C-alpha cells in the first residue's frame, strides 16, 4: 500500500498543478513497481525525482512558478519505508509515542538542527516558510528516506502539510491518532487546527495509516 502527500506552492493554479503531478507520478510508478528488480527505496526516490522533473518542465508552458513538497510512504509485508522532500512531515507513532519524525528541509529546520533555536522559537520565526529544498526548483531535490521493521499492531503513520503540524506538538498528534480511528482522528485534527489558526491557517492535507488487529473471522459452519 502507498500513501502520498504533496503541498503545492506557486499561485493557486500553479501549486495545485505541482501537487497533482506528484500524485500522478506516484500512481504510475507504484502500478509499474516490480519488487523482483527494484528496491522500495529506489521506487520512492524515483517518484520524487521524476515528479521534480515534470514540475520543472511545466514552467516553460505556464505563467506560474510551480513547486511542491512530497512525502511518499509504502507499506509492505514485514516493514515500511518512506521518503520526503520539503517541509511536509512524516511521523511514526507506536501507541501514542513518537518513534520518529522527518526533518524539515527549511531554513528554520536547519536552525533547529544546529541548535540555534528551539521548537517554540521555530513556530514563530519570521522565516519559517522559507524552504531549502522542494520539487520544481533549480536545484535537485534533497531526499531523506528511512524505514522501519518489523511492524506491530499499534503502529501509526501520519503524513501532513505544515498547515496541520504547525499547530500541534508531537505528543498531541500521537494521542489523537492513538485513541481514535483514522478517519475520526483526521477530522478531529483538522477541526482543531482550524480553531487554533483563528481562520488564518494554511491549507491542511493529511493521511493517516493505522495498523490494527484484524477481526476474527468465524469458521464456516459444518453440515
UniProtKB/TrEMBL annotation:
Domain PPM-type phosphatase: 1-211
InterPro entries reported for this sequence: PPM-type-like_dom_sf, PPM-type_phosphatase-like_dom
Listed CDD domains: PP2Cc
Record Pfam families: PP2C_2
Protein's UniProt name: Serine/threonine protein phosphatase PrpC
Naturally occurring in which organism (per UniProt): Azoarcus indigens
Amino acid at each position: 500500500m502507498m500513501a502520498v502527500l504533496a503541498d503545492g506552492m506557486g499561485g493557486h493554479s500553479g501549486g495545485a498543478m505541482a501537487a497533482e503531478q506528484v500524485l500522478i507520478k506516484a500512481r504510475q510508478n507504484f502500478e509499474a513497481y516490480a519488487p523482483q528488480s527494484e528496491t522500495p527505496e529506489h521506487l520512492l526516490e524515483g517518484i520524487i525525482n521524476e515528479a521534480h522533473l515534470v514540475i520543472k518542465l511545466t514552467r516553460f508552458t505556464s505563467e506560474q512558478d510551480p513547486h511542491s513538497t512530497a512525502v511518499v510512504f509504502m507499506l509492505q509485508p514485514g516493514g515500511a519505508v518512506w521518503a520526503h522532500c520539503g517541509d511536509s512531515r512524516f511521523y511514526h507513532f507506536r501507541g501514542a509515542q513518537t518513534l520518529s519524525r522527518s526533518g524539515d528541509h527549511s531554513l528554520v529546520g536547519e536552525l533547529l538542527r544546529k541548535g540555534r533555536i528551539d521548537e517554540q522559537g521555530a513556530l514563530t520565526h519570521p522565516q519559517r516558510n522559507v524552504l531549502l529544498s522542494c520539487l520544481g526548483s533549480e536545484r535537485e531535490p534533497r531526499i531523506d528516506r528511512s524505514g522501519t521493521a518489523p511492524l506491530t499492531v499499534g503502529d501509526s503513520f501520519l503524513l501532513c502539510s505544515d498547515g496541520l503540524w504547525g499547530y500541534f506538538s508531537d505528543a498531541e498528534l500521537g494521542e489523537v491518532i492513538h485513541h481514535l480511528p483514522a478517519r475520526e482522528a483526521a477530522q478531529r485534527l483538522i477541526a482543531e487546527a482550524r480553531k487554533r489558526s483563528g481562520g488564518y491557517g494554511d491549507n491542511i492535507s493529511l493521511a493517516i495509516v493505522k495498523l490494527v488487529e484484524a477481526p476474527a473471522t468465524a469458521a464456516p459452519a459444518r453440515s
